[in-house]
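pinned: reference chain
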Amino acid sequence: MEVIFMTENRNSRTAATGVGGYADDRVTAIVPVAGAGMRLRPHTHTYPKALLTVGDKPIIGHILDQLVETGIKKACLVTGYLGEKIKRYVSENYPSLNVSYAVQEEQLGLGHAIWLTKEYVKGPAFIILGDTIISADMRKFLNSEIDCIAVKAVDDPRRFGVVEIEKGYIKNIAEKPQNPKSKMAVVGIYSFKNCKLLYDSLDKLMDSRKTTKGEIQLSDALEILVKSGHKIKPVPIEGWHDCGKPETLLATNKYILDKKKFKIRRKNCLIIPPVYIADSAKAVNSVIGPYVSIGAGAKIESSVISDSIINENAIINNMNLSGSLVGPSAVVTGRREQINIGENSEINFNV
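pinned: its structure tokens
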């Protein structure tokens, strides 16, 4: 059974109050969403990265939908930058989810972020990063008798935590090594049957003041666990979609639109699927698609848009856009031109 980190239901509130799946009721999901999203500026000047839209809803919405669908009833979110906006979104859209919050005031690394949750999380813990959309068989993690980490072979493992595997278990973990000994990268899901062991390792890491690449890394705490003889099983996954840069955000938007296959129609518009347009958005005399997401309250008129994300309440008029991100309430207006030119003529509107 493959479970994809998204849902066909457009209404997060409905999804969040539905019947859960197969997770142990004691499991707490830990979701770090404290990052400032520097590579996604200017959008993250006013929005936390986790609230940026892909497909039909914010990144964090896709993640929380899946947690609820797998039966997880408790979550601890690590907030920081613009955290109040995340809390507002979660409380409005996921009222049935029992959510606690740890605040990371300084961005000191993923290990530090997880360490901050130790007062809120007891028993089994399931960690999923808040800037990644993953498709995987969740039973391999939630029903495993052994602690698990999701891994995937990548072309350039130097940008990730890298694991060495021996006899089906993780032998070593190194964070962003210059000379990686394998291509198996740690990709953002961790499952622990007893989180106390994890927090003990994080305490040791904090006491040692060890940093890697200037941050307190979760990989270093896991290496302490592994070296102590604790068994952790790598679980290979296929679907892993990053949302950390404009180009990867757009690529993830394509992935979601392909999977969900929304049936969108608008009068006086040519819709080229896959496309998502919120019910309250207006589109007139335009060509929209493929791979376009348009948020609630947006207004599109006399424009051609493809491979783009148009956020809520944005206004697009007389534009030809491709590969674009338009933030909430932004206004983009072009101009219409009429030309009548003959042979060997040249017009350059860019000067």
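why pinned: The two ends are 56 Å apart (CA to CA). The longest strand covers residues 184-192.
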